[in-house]
């Protein structure tokens, strides 16, 4: 993208039922001309002549359908960390810059993961159930300190998770695009890969993804959704986990093959799962995940804390000022990979 800004930036805001709060923070940016607000059904009418698009309708696929009308677009900003809904071929192959909302969700999601680990270790779901039934039943629980976690996804969210878990005495390693040692947050990072189906015929190498899965008491999925990661947590991956281990997914629902997860849980090949994201959302009422023992279900809310919408708007407003001034944008995404540059 050229650093030379338009004389007057025309901005389109794609929204759903709710408009962004504090809109005056970007409506009043010098050099920004008309702001057009559009829902998915009229986005194609709003895009002609627009230079910037703010995708506030968080997981909308509307940009794909309306893309042919984006005749002057130079920048798209997503009010999300994941941008898989924007990585369609026409946008990826264009000169349009994509930025995301990295940084807003990192620490809240890390706190959620820590909360899930503590809930499992201290058996809090059973405690609450017994309390509701007025049942006094003494139990022993697990230690958190000394347990081992494998965080799949070594971007900013994965790193925040690693730091939180290490702070309570857990050992942590990462799985990412490339293997490396002496990482400041993970120590060791193994190369994540799709594992072959069928029974294992040999002991995996110690520095392999398969071996790292077998070491983990908790496997945390925090990777972006790409062609390489879609369906990564399938029967082969789950078979490599310990029967006493738990899976935590705060990435994207499509990272997990849910039928394989259900089968592993039902067969006792996995101790539990904390799931904040699902293949289809909302989770269907007849999904067995609602009632399977050892499963925690939350409605895609791990990063949504009080004030998160205001933080999203402030980040976008800062980037809009940069765009209008011709300065470098924050959180530029590598469109070919779906990652933020430098992560």
TrEMBL record:
Residues 115-302 form the D-isomer specific 2-hydroxyacid dehydrogenase NAD-binding domain. Keywords: NAD, Oxidoreductase. It comes from the Bacteria. Pfam families: 2-Hacid_dh, 2-Hacid_dh_C. Coiled coil: none annotated. The keyword Repressor does not apply. InterPro entries: D-isomer_2_OHA_DH_cat_dom, D-isomer_DH_CS, D-isomer_DH_NAD-bd, NAD(P)-bd_dom_sf. PROSITE patterns: D_2_HYDROXYACID_DH_3. The keyword Nucleus does not apply. Residues 39-333 form the D-isomer specific 2-hydroxyacid dehydrogenase catalytic domain. PANTHER family: 2-HACID_DH_C DOMAIN-CONTAINING PROTEIN (PTHR43333), D-ISOMER SPECIFIC 2-HYDROXYACID DEHYDROGENASE NAD-BINDING DOMAIN-CONTAINING PROTEIN (PTHR43333:SF1). This is Hydroxyacid dehydrogenase.
């Amino acid at each position: 993208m050229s650093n030379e800004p338009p004389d007057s930036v025309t901005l389109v805001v794609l929204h759903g039922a709710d408009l962004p709060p504090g809109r005056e923070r970007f409506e009043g940016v010098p050099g920004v001309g008309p702001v057009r607000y559009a829902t998915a059904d009229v986005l194609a009418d709003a895009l002609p002549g627009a230079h910037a698009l703010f995708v506030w309708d968080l997981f909308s696929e509307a940009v794909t359908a309306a893309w042919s009308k984006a005749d002057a677009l130079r920048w798209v900003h997503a009010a999300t960390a994941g941008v898989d809904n924007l990585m369609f071929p026409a946008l990826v192959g264009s000169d349009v810059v994509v930025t995301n909302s990295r940084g807003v969700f990192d620490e809240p999601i890390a706190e959620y993961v820590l909360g899930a680990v503590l809930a499992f270790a201290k058996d809090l779901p059973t405690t609450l159930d017994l309390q509701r039934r007025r049942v006094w039943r003494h139990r022993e629980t697990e230690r958190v300190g000394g347990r081992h976690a494998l965080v799949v996804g070594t971007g900013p969210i994965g790193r925040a998770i690693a730091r939180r878990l290490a702070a309570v005495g857990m050992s942590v390693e990462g799985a990412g695009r490339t293997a490396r040692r002496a990482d400041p947050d993970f120590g060791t990072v193994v190369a994540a890969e799709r594992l072959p189906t069928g029974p294992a015929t040999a002991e995996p190498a110690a520095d392999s993804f398969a071996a790292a899965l077998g070491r983990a008491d908790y496997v945390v999925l925090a990777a972006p959704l790409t062609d390489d990661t879609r369906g990564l947590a399938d029967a082969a991956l789950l078979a490599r986990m310990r029967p006493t281990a738990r899976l935590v997914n705060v990435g994207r629902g499509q990272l997990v093959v849910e039928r394989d997860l259900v089968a592993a849980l039902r067969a006792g090949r996995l101790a539990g799962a904390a799931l904040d994201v699902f293949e289809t959302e909302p989770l269907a009422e007849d999904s067995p995940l609602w009632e399977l023992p050892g499963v925690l279900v939350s409605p895609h809310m791990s990063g949504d804390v009080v004030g998160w919408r205001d933080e999203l708007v402030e980040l976008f407003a800062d980037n809009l000022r940069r765009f209008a001034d011709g300065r470098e944008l924050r959180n530029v995404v590598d469109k070919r990979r779906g990652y933020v540059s430098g992560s």
